[in-house]
Specification:
333 residues; alpha/beta; Rossmann fold; seven-stranded mixed β-sheet; six-stranded parallel β-sheet; 13 strands
Length: 333
Amino acid sequence: MHKKVNRLFIFYWPWLLIGLAVSALVAGLFLPLQHKPYPYRIIAIGKASTQGTAFWYSMAEGMAAAAIEFQVSVDYRSTVDESEVGRQIAIVNQAIAEKPDAIILAALDADRLVEPARAARAAGITVVMVDSALADVEKSPQQSFIATNNVLAGQQLGELVVQRVRPGAKILVISPSTRGDSLIGRETGVRAVIQDAFNVLPTLDTGGQLSDEIYHQVSQALIDHPDVEAIVCLNEYTTAGAARAIRGASLTGEVTLVGFDSSEELINYLEEGLLSAVVIQRPFNMGYLSVTRTIDLLNGRKVEPFYDTGSIVITKDNIYTEENQKLLFPFED
């Protein structure tokens, strides 16, 4: 009996091995449908800390979500605020020395960050820009750019002024920097709409300072120009600082304020009428897509040179719609 079984085993075992091999091959056909870990290390370099700045916090959360989903390492680093161009250059150089697979960069200065980005590419590091691009895009080392169409977003801001302020009124535009690509685009869009119809003052460059310092700068501007009828702000903390200055000068309802980006503070100003409207971006989506497009590049896939993540106008009238609540509070149920 045992000899018969052994003969049967000897006869059938080659066919058994063939069957197992075929089964493994068939199973392997379905493996691409499952998430495979990508052993990539990415260093993301933003413009400001995620502490106290809703935009960069939300973007970093989007990056973290993509990192978890695709099992890559994403290390977010930044300057404290947007005044530290030299510090950001040092962060990029340190990142290059660590030899990651890719660097995702939001350039504080469109010109001064070109050479550090070129150095990264020369070192074989993939370079993807987010939020703010480099100067001379056609010749720059960036391989993809994920951001808001900032000229269009600036035009949206300008239209808010046209809708709310009488023609010929004196307008003050406030920017955290006149060197960043995203801010240049926003100002270009704003001025294209309002320059001919209003008395637009020279742009107040707040030097990348945070809201507390901006409050003092705008308070002085309101003293210097008491006939200003509207203020246009180009990012989150210029909007917050200007709102505090308007309130401090007891000009709520007299000076129209439109701004950019969102935070809990700005939402409160919208609800009470101190802030007339904001144009908001989709920073979570921006962060998420910057990582997924980087992974595509690292895997040899073709990606578009620019991805527009969009912008939307938020006012007191539409703040409570379901879609806008999801944009304003992306981490709440």
